[in-house]
Specification:
Blueprint (H helix, E strand, L loop, with lengths): L5 E4 L3 H15 L5 E5 L7 H18 L3 E3 L6 H4 L5 H22 L4 E4 L9 H15 L2 E2 L8 H11 L17
Parallel strand pairs: 1-2, 1-4, 2-3, 4-5
Bound molecules: iron/sulfur cluster (SF4).
Length: 177
């Protein structure tokens, strides 16, 4: 059984490769990292399952357990009225809330997210969403800019034969280039 030092919200397999290495480098090899796949924003459902399957493979490669919240919600993202940046804020808030709540209910004091390995995500907004959620549930959000390892993580994912998606997650993000 892994020690519950940190709950790591995992958005997909490739993004977790470098982050897990980095956390072990930072906190030590024996640091207990536990993954959580909680991404109701990934559409369509086949894509949700494909990313879950690859998150599972990545966790197996790195030797950490993975829990899953199977919530899936397409209409809220697809028909969101507002700008892209507001949709992303809503998306970060929902996922950080799920992670903080799971952490509090399952005995973790800290949580972080693999979203922070991507230079394409809004780090300020993720940090804010993480800290607000942490406060709501009495846990700690661990912010770190993992993006220095984005390419290394992608390289590892390619080598391991993981599926590397071409869009962020919601259907509108297929149009962003
Ligand atoms: S672009 Fe990505 S972060 Fe923004 S709402 Fe869509 S899935 Fe969420």
């Amino acid at each position: 059984m892994c020690e519950k030092d940190m709950l790591l919200h995992i958005c997909c397999g490739p993004c977790s490769m470098f982050v897990i290495d980095d956390l072990r480098e930072y906190f030590g090899r024996d640091y207990g990292i536990w993954g959580l796949y909680a991404n109701p924003n990934i559409h369509p459902y086949e894509e949700f399952l494909r990313r879950l399957e690859n998150a599972d493979k990545a966790c197996a490669i790195k030797g950490i357990p993975l829990s899953v919240i199977t919530d899936f919600e397409q209409e809220r993202w697809e028909f969101f009225e507002g700008e892209q940046k507001d949709r992303c804020k809503m998306c970060y808030r929902i996922r950080m809330d799920m992670a903080a709540r799971f952490a509090a209910e399952n005995g973790f004091r800290k949580f972080s997210t693999t979203l922070l390995v991507s230079p394409y995500q809004n780090h300020e907004e993720i940090k804010l969403a993480g800290e607000e959620a942490a406060k709501r549930y009495g846990v700690e959000f661990f912010y770190r800019d993992y993006s220095v390892g984005f390419r290394e993580g992608q390289r590892q994912a390619r080598e391991a034969g993981l599926y590397r998606q071409k869009y962020c997650g919601c259907l509108p993000s297929k149009e962003y280039k």
